[in-house]
Design the sequence.
């Protein structure tokens, strides 16, 4: 897939691009989700892949760091995770080789790159950067709450991990295809690798979280759109505070509710029943009005990967009828997704 | 004032007590608010005060660090702030002297004590602790959302800085006087100095804020009360996320709404009209029900310091009548405050 310019902004903490995707010694495809996400959404920023024993592949050309550097690569992205979120000793030789080849190293893992003495020493010696995208920028301001110029869309959800990033990326792409000036604004590690910039909302200091959301999506010209990746859920027993700070700081004009049909309880919190889509719409408007009285819901994004095409279409139609607004699966695209994107862009009747 | 045992718990990050209160070279009483707060609410944990040129005083005995140590002091508390939130060079000799006398140093300032090389070196040499109460504990868990045993009261507000800490302290004391097993749970720096423990909610990492609130107020026996110091406001454009995380993690059975009569707009955010007390009650119940379906409002705490006694009493009576629940000013105490404390303790009719 090609990547519209919407996905290569250089706002907050611009990353060295293009990338060489590093797969380590990973043998489980699920652990390479980050590499697949970057390939799918920022493919024209990836010159190739490299590994030290991995059996998984992104399908991109296999290049050594030196070959990647010759083709213009500036950063090596650690595109795999493991259960512990740490960088095993067996990867360190490869990472040091990348530094020697002239690449910076970019990681979204919990462990900080500079905690590995050999990496820290090599980066220091060679004048290369070790970039942890889970680290928020310094000097995030306290939120002002003041309305900024430009238009903003935020994806929200009934829960975590059901398509908020994917929906935002797909909508940003759909906006760009329509000739709309748009930036995808990333709030999580994979989104930041894809966008080349962003702020990891979950890692911000609580008092500054709304300020981080303001910083992420600064004032722009009146017709410009920021499409902002949502986090958590206002109904989540652990993460609702992050979601509210992101809502208040983003000041969205428009939001899209993301949901995984069939999910009945909060992931990892089986005591908590999932809210309905209607409840999410109501609460998002109620709380979002504090910083943007004109906030409105453009429609619904359903993750229908577990259904066949007919069942998915039937569910989308039923949901759209029931709620009186577009419902689409960005993975399937099609007319329903066109309607959702257009509903987000259209001023509401009477406005 | 004496201090009930409620205020000397040793739960999270227990501080070295008793204290010697340090006033630096402060000449502006407003800058000594922390020292006054600790004197007022943890007076039996303060052996004296000490300064290096201050003209303000807490009225406690003036003691050198060595004299304070002889009377049992374990920590020197920096009880003053200055405009920049930093520790001036002119205090460092005095602080080093305190370390030599055998006291740990406790600070609630933004600047970390260990950033001052002479302090860091002296503490290292002498085996003394430099404690920054703005630093949250390590290993805060992600919130589980699971209901914990024991009872909890949270003070909430229409805004910041209008009496949530003071109200919580006064209620904890009133509970203790009634023979109720109670702990005051501090969520800000002055509260932590008073309680001798606590977690600075504003400094937690956003994803862990609700978990911090759970950690702050752990499971207890069924009749035990935690009275938790609130932070921010659910209507605050910068801090609502912190307030929501604290509400969800605290799982309060009861809350008290704090308000400053006459304040019409959010402090420092003149574009934002303050919510009404009724709006705060409604939203706190609506959102708080997510982790405690039985949440209820016990009454209102008004900061009436700017009114004379008659006007204050008239306002409290009018507010109580209007809202159908007790309204009191903890600073004034009296029958209305007794009613508020009792309403918090009483099971609601029909429960």
Sequence:
């Amino acid at each position: 897939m090609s990547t519209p310019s919407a996905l290569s902004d250089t706002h907050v903490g611009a990353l060295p691009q293009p990338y060489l995707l590093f797969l380590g010694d990973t043998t489980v495809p699920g652990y390479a989700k980050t590499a697949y996400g970057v390939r799918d959404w920022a493919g024209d920023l990836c010159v190739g892949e490299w590994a030290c024993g991995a059996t998984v592949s992104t399908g991109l050309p296999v290049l050594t760091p030196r070959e990647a550097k010759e083709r213009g690569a500036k950063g090596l992205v650690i595109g795999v995770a493991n259960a512990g979120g740490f960088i095993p000793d067996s990867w360190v030789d490869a990472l040091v080789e990348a530094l020697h080849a002239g690449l910076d190293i970019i990681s979204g893992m919990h462990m900080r790159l500079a905690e590995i003495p050999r990496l820290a020493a090599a980066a220091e010696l060679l004048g290369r950067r070790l970039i942890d995208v889970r680290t928020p920028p310094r000097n995030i301001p306290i939120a002002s709450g003041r309305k900024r110029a430009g238009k903003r869309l935020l994806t929200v959800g009934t829960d975590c991990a059901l398509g908020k990033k994917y929906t935002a990326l797909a909508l940003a792409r759909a906006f760009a295809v329509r000739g709309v000036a748009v930036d995808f604004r990333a709030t999580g590690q994979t989104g930041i690798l894809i966008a080349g910039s962003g702020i990891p909302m979950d890692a911000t200091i609580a008092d500054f979280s709304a300020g981080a959301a303001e910083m992420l999506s600064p004032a722009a010209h009146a017709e410009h759109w920021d499409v902002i990746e949502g986090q958590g859920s206002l109904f989540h027993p652990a993460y609702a505070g992050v979601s509210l700070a992101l809502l208040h700081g983003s000041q969205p004009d428009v939001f899209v509710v993301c949901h995984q049909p069939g999910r009945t309880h909060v992931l990892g919190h089986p005591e908590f029943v999932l809210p309905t889509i209607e409840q999410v719409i109501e609460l998002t408007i109620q709380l979002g009005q504090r910083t943007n009285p004109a906030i409105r819901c453009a429609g619904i994004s359903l993750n229908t990967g577990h259904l066949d095409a007919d069942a998915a279409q039937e569910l989308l139609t039923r949901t759209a009828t029931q709620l009186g607004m577009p419902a689409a699966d960005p993975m399937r695209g099609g007319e329903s997704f066109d309607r959702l994107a257009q509903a987000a862009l259209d001023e509401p009747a009477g406005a």
Notes: Residues 1-11 of chain B have pLDDT under 50 and may be disordered. The interface with chain A takes residues 142-146, 201-207, 209-211, 235, 237-246, 248, 266, 269, 271-272, 287, 290-291 of chain B (CB under 8 Å). The longest strand of chain B covers residues 151-157. Residues 309-323 of chain B form the longest helix (15 residues).
